């Protein structure tokens, strides 16, 4: 009887594990679909952002009326909603300073 009960518990454990495997496989497929949808959504957003970026720079001009070169400038949006066009060299120097500060804090 003890051996029979042991076999029964073992069989139940195996059945529970098989059920867990099936549930995890279903969850994995669901997560793959969600990941795929998120990736497509991110790609669409990146494309829209690139289009917007190009559209903005096509309309921008400097003080002399010449078009602003997108290779030399970057659009910066602050947390309060204001938007600035900043030379890339300034952004790079700010990033270096921020990185140096982070390394000093570590």
UniProtKB/TrEMBL annotation:
<feature type="domain" description="BZIP">
    <location>
        <begin position="2"/>
        <end position="49"/>
    </location>
</feature>
<dbReference type="InterPro" id="IPR046347">
    <property type="entry name" value="bZIP_sf"/>
</dbReference>
<dbReference type="GO" id="GO:0005634">
    <property type="term" value="C:nucleus"/>
</dbReference>
<dbReference type="GO" id="GO:0000978">
    <property type="term" value="F:RNA polymerase II cis-regulatory region sequence-specific DNA binding"/>
</dbReference>
<dbReference type="InterPro" id="IPR004827">
    <property type="entry name" value="bZIP"/>
</dbReference>
<dbReference type="GO" id="GO:0000981">
    <property type="term" value="F:DNA-binding transcription factor activity, RNA polymerase II-specific"/>
</dbReference>
<protein>
    <submittedName>
        <fullName>NF2L3 factor</fullName>
    </submittedName>
</protein>
<dbReference type="InterPro" id="IPR047167">
    <property type="entry name" value="NFE2-like"/>
</dbReference>
<dbReference type="Pfam" id="PF00170">
    <property type="entry name" value="bZIP_1"/>
</dbReference>
């Amino acid at each position: 009887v003890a051996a029979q009960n042991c076999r029964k518990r073992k069989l139940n454990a195996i059945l529970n594990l098989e059920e867990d495997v099936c549930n995890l496989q279903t969850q994995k497929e669901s997560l793959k679909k969600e990941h795929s949808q998120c990736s497509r959504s991110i790609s669409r957003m990146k494309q829209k952002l690139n289009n917007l970026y190009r559209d903005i720079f096509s309309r921008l001009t400097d003080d002399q009326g010449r078009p602003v070169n997108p290779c030399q400038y970057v659009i910066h949006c602050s947390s309060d909603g204001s938007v600035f066009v900043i030379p890339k060299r300034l952004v790079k120097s700010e990033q270096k300073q921020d990185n140096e500060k982070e390394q000093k804090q570590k």
